[in-house]
Amino acid sequence: MTEHTSITPTDLRHASLLALMSPEFEESLVVRVLKHKGELPNDVRRKLDSAINSVVKIPQFPNQPAIAPVPVVKQHILGQLDISESLANAVFQAWFASHETLYALVKGYLYGRDIEVEYPDFVNHKFREAWSSDDWISERDSILAVHESLNKNDVALMLCFATDKMPDSSRVEAKHEANMTNQNILSQARRFLDQLPADAPEWNSDIPDFIAWVSDITDRKKNERESVAAVEAVSGKIAELSKYSTVLEYFGTRLERLGGPGQFVLI
Length: 267
Known about the structure:
This protein is mostly helical. The chain is built from 10 helices and 2 strands. Helix 6 crosses helix 7 (152-163). The longest helix has 37 residues, at 206-242. The radius of gyration is 30 Å and the shape is flat. The protein starts with 22 loop residues before the first helix and ends in a 10-residue tail after the last helix.
């Protein structure tokens, strides 16, 4: 298969996969990990709990946020997942460990296609190589053609970990498989504010300043839009008047011949 080389070493980090996910799939991934935590191998579960306890802050569970109820800890994990590489890696490893059946299916498919299978490198948090995005999507769709009940996002993600390859995100076709968009960023900001506890100190300092900053930017951009609209309106009027330039020139000449513009002359 043809490989594209536009991907950089930084893009090979496991955390880079988050840029290819829709917020909905990201949430479903975290929910699955939390609900299957009791079934995970001990080392994987300990790593996940350690990452949560180190990164996530929940006032009601100051010492062990990992033991908070799933709906509570889920929102806090989602608020930090794109920020903390160690948390993202622990979540991905737990997701992989919770999908033994899917891994076996994808691995069998890859063997049948004579595609090399590699165990993911969760120690160094990075992939070995890059998928061609076209090939990645093609292999995903081939598996789904035989196993229609599978979730296409789960299959796509498992293809990454079963081959130890990161998709070349510069050539991915679908929106949920594209690099992070502005809308994704805004959604994450809203989600972060929504999951922030009511008694968090940020509400008294950082967030009011942030809101004022956003308000100032909004006003400035509004003024810029209004200025552009005013210029365009004047330009339109000038263009409209230019259609009558020949007529105006004619009347100007007539006035000059009949005594100049200072006298009213009926022609």
